[in-house]
Amino acid sequence: MEIKMNNYKYDYPKLPLIIIFFAGIPYAIVIKSQTLYKFQDLGSANMILVTVLFFWCFLYWAFVDSTFNLITIFRNKIKFFQQDKSAMKIKDTLRDHSQISSVENIVKEDKLPILNEVETEITHLKISEKMVEDVMKKQKSSNLLKEKQILDCFLVYTKITMEPYTKPEELEKLEAYIRTYSENKQIESFDFLIETEGLENDDLINFGYNMVNHFDYTTLKKFVLPLIGMFKNLNGLEEDYIRGKLYYKESNKKNKIICIKNISQYLDELVQDK
Prior knowledge:
By secondary structure, this protein is mostly helical. About 75% of the residues lie in helices and about 5% in strands.
């Protein structure tokens, strides 16, 4: 049994309808008997019988139809939500695929060379690090070379200046102090006093000025104690006395060692004079 209503097609089971129909016959017969007993009219009683059976079946059909209608609507809603959810998944999949394709196309077309940029940055970083290391090595080598040149320059000056007034072993001690000062920028301990012959205190103080000025590691005032610790002639003098004389002074004829602002230039002039 098929019934169409509101564009919906229902296929109702036939057996329950037959059962309901026959179940309603006794009820219709009872009503017919009551009507016949009351009105004594067989035609009206038969009409009542048919009417009761019709309404009985109609009620069953209305109940089943409403039930099937609600179930169908409910199923359609569920199906709609499922389809909508599936559609969303499909859209997400397509969108992701589209994005991936777009990125692949962009990379292929070099519109956004992300990987290339990253690789380039890494390469530049490695190059930069290597350049920094090379520059630091060169700078260190340059500094060491410069320090050696400064040291050698003053050792030459010391040999030329002090050799006439010191014994060879005393000159070696002085050179050892100078090397220690060049390496450590200070002299922490004084194991021996250097003896000189024919030099005045002012000469030794002037030598101290030249040493401080040439290496430029410390101030003149802080070099008073190293001077006292190096030279025997200055060892017994007051610090204030030496500090008062430790400054640049114009050359004096009575001084064998004069104050020199530029040792390298001074040596060049000596070579030219010869």
